[in-house]
């Protein structure tokens, strides 16, 4: 590992007097004072759009309006004493080695390095003993929780919400007690599900961190990301092997999915039913994560999460749910059976039209949460607050979602098209393609292609076109009355 991780130094080892105010907080520069004033207004309940970096302001909105984190919190809460999954052991071993090595390097710079699991629970801390003792006053120590939901805006928790490294300096922290800290963190994500697996963070008290920290974090986690990628390919190979063994004995639609619900392989009956004819890699086995097909079946992500939880450690488990395989069509039973290796579920075999095992009962939680009256987007150095009516459509670029509005193309602060869809469905938005979510009230014209394809014209003047997949076309025509 030492050969692949660059050296880390965050000198000067002692902050200059210019970095401090007389009363201590890290707000000496004009930009930091502006952030502190913005924080005071925002914490008092005012809505703001400027004066703070957009990723930080989006975090403040989550902390205040969604998570309702107490801004006067002065210590992180204890984390639940859950047991780590065995399949993450290699990742945490490598991450612990990286943290210990970095801790030795930053000890002279009065800094501390922490690593967490994917829920923000601190697993280890290394670095300057004095800084560690100061950090422990805020419970920045093993078995405490530093997710945004628990502890507000911070390097570890906020890295789970954004792509790439994130820095949080002084009053950018949501909780006032942390305003004398600077931190920088990066999350390590599962290449299959896109969810965070772990994070590494560097913290320093009453002194800034250099801009080079972001580059160091990105390079340092590369070796761990390679292990995650290798594991994903290994799992896909195992899942496809099980699919191939059963394929000759199955006559109905039959697919193999990874842990994220992406199709690794499908038989001919499933290809016809699900409209995968343009995806030759699925028929031949999509071992590479980037080649896998994401199924566009409403409710499937929730069902898959339930099946993964129920099947942990049990190769014999099976369960089913009834879902609309075609938009507007009748619900079709889907039976799932896990592919398990060393008590770890690597994927699912899914039999369409078959009803066997434990029935799925949907969770009522989604209907309890209040729907947003605004959608938060980010553009350049500004946060943009959008009314749902302003959005013509949303387009997914893998986990990044772009909102196309009267104010231009704006990146959604929420990751994943499924998550954006849950926010906007009650405002007249409908999925028309695996990559597109459309505001039906903003459809200006419909256009037919040479081969019968359907396109939505969202802006007649600029001929802004959104394609409609064949499986969504009948339901969309019904909803639009055409």
Automatic annotation (TrEMBL):
- Residues forming the HTH LytTR-type domain are 380-482
The alphabetical list of record keywords is: DNA-binding
Q: Which Pfam families match?
A: LytTR
This entry's Gene Ontology molecular function terms read: DNA binding
Which PROSITE patterns does this one have?
HTH_LYTTR
* PANTHER family recorded: STAGE 0 SPORULATION PROTEIN A HOMOLOG (PTHR37299:SF1), TRANSCRIPTIONAL REGULATOR-RELATED (PTHR37299)
**Record-given protein name:** LytTR family transcriptional regulator DNA-binding domain-containing protein
Organism of derivation: Streptomyces cellulosae
């Amino acid at each position: 590992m030492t050969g692949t991780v660059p050296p880390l130094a965050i000198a000067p080892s002692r902050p200059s007097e210019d970095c401090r105010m007389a009363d201590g907080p890290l707000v000496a520069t004009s930009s930091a004072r502006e952030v502190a004033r913005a924080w005071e207004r925002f914490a008092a309940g005012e809505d703001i759009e400027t004066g703070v970096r957009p990723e930080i302001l989006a975090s403040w909105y989550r902390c205040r309006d969604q998570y309702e984190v107490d801004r006067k919190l002065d210590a992180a809460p204890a984390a639940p004493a859950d047991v780590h999954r065995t399949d993450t052991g290699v990742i945490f071993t490598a991450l612990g080695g990286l943290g210990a090595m970095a801790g030795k390097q930053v000890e002279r710079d009065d800094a501390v390095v922490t690593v967490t699991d994917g829920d923000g629970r601190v697993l280890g801390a290394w670095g300057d003993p004095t800084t560690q003792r100061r950090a422990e006053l805020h419970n920045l120590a093993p078995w405490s929780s530093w997710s945004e939901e628990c502890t507000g805006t911070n390097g570890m928790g906020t890295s789970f919400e954004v792509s790439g490294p994130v820095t949080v300096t002084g009053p950018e922290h949501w909780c006032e007690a942390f305003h004398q800290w600077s931190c920088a963190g990066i999350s390590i994500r599962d290449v299959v599900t896109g969810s965070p697996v772990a994070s590494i963070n560097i913290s320093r008290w009453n002194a800034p961190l250099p801009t080079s920290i972001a580059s160091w974090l990105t390079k340092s986690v590369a070796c761990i990301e390679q292990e995650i990628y290798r594991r994903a390919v290994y799992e896909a190979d195992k899942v496809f092997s099980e699919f191939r063994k059963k394929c000759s004995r199955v006559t109905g639609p039959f697919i193999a999915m990874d842990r994220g619900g992406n199709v690794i392989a499908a038989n001919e009956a499933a290809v016809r039913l699900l409209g995968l004819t343009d995806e030759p890699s699925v028929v031949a086995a999509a071992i590479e994560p980037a080649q896998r097909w994401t199924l566009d079946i409403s409710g499937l992500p929730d069902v898959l999460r339930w099946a993964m939880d129920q099947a942990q450690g049990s190769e014999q488990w099976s369960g089913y749910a009834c879902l609309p395989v075609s938009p507007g069509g009748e619900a079709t039973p889907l039976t799932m059976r896990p592919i398990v290796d060393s008590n770890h579920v690597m994927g699912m075999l899914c039999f369409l039209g078959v009803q066997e095992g434990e029935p799925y009962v949907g969770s009522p939680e989604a209907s309890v949460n209040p729907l947003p009256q605004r959608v938060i987007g980010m553009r350049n150095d500004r946060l943009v607050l959008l009314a749902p009516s302003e959005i013509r459509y949303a387009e997914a670029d893998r986990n990044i979602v772009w909102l196309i509005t009267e104010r231009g193309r704006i990146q959604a602060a929420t990751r994943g098209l499924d998550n954006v869809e849950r926010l906007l469905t009650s405002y007249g938005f409908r999925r028309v393609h695996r990559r597109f979510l459309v505001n039906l009230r903003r459809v200006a014209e419909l256009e037919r292609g040479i081969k019968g394809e359907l396109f939505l014209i969202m802006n007649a003047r600029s001929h802004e076109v959104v394609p409609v997949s064949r499986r969504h076309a009948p339901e969309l025509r019904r909803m639009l009355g055409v």
